[in-house]
């Protein structure tokens, strides 16, 4: 009698365990199928997307209708030619990004890395876009071989920058002629500066002091730079 009772009790317990497992598996399937990421508010999603390369950001539009136009409102734009296997695709992509991006969305960061020569029309288009959206621009990175004077003219108009990274090589100069760094730039909020291939001019005392105007500067990196008349 005791054995029969124990057997019945064991069967009941096993059945309960089985049902519990089925219930847990069902809950796990529901959690997997539930799109929790898309339920996040736009502000958080846009913050997450701002850390990605713009090409990858645009690809998120295929996830669902929720993501279809979200990329147009990201506060950061990252444009790298290294992300394109065919060089002709890059200027087409950049033109569409700058044209379709939401005009009411403030631009906080832009990073351009061409890894070589950039065609003048494309460079002008990007720089014009920067100049027209520089009110809230805080982070700017440009690494190109092209019209360095045009680049520096654009950079000088970005007064709100807190971080600036420049790697500039004049087009057609095979000896990597350094770009002349301006004696003064009006960037009172600048805290991080990274420069490659620049020349700094010395003053009347024979010393080059190009960073005195940056009172908040706490990080400075210079590579392949020279001093002239100092």
UniProtKB/TrEMBL annotation:
Domain of life per record: Eukaryota
UniProt protein name: Uncharacterized protein
UniProt organism field: Trifolium pratense (Red clover)
């Amino acid at each position: 009698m005791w054995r029969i009772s124990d057997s019945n009790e064991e069967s009941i317990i096993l059945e309960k365990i089985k049902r519990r497992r089925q219930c847990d598996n069902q809950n796990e399937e529901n959690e997997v199928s539930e799109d929790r990421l898309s339920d996040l508010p736009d502000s958080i999603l846009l913050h997450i997307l701002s850390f990605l390369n713009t090409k990858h950001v645009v690809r998120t539009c295929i996830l669902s209708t929720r993501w279809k136009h979200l990329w147009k409102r990201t506060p950061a734009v990252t444009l790298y030619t290294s992300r394109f296997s065919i060089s002709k695709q890059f200027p087409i992509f950049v033109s569409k990004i700058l044209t379709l991006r939401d005009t009411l969305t403030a631009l906080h960061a832009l990073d351009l890395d061409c890894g070589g020569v950039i065609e003048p029309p494309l460079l002008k288009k990007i720089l014009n876009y920067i100049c027209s959206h520089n009110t809230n621009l805080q982070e700017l990175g440009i690494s190109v071989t092209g019209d360095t004077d045009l680049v520096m003219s654009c950079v000088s108009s970005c007064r709100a920058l807190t971080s600036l990274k420049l790697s500039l090589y004049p087009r057609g100069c095979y000896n990597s002629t350094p770009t002349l760094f301006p004696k003064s730039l009006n960037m009172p909020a600048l805290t991080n500066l990274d420069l490659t291939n620049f020349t700094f001019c010395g003053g009347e005392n024979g010393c080059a002091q190009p960073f005195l105007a940056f009172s908040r500067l706490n990080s400075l990196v210079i590579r392949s730079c020279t001093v002239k008349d100092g």
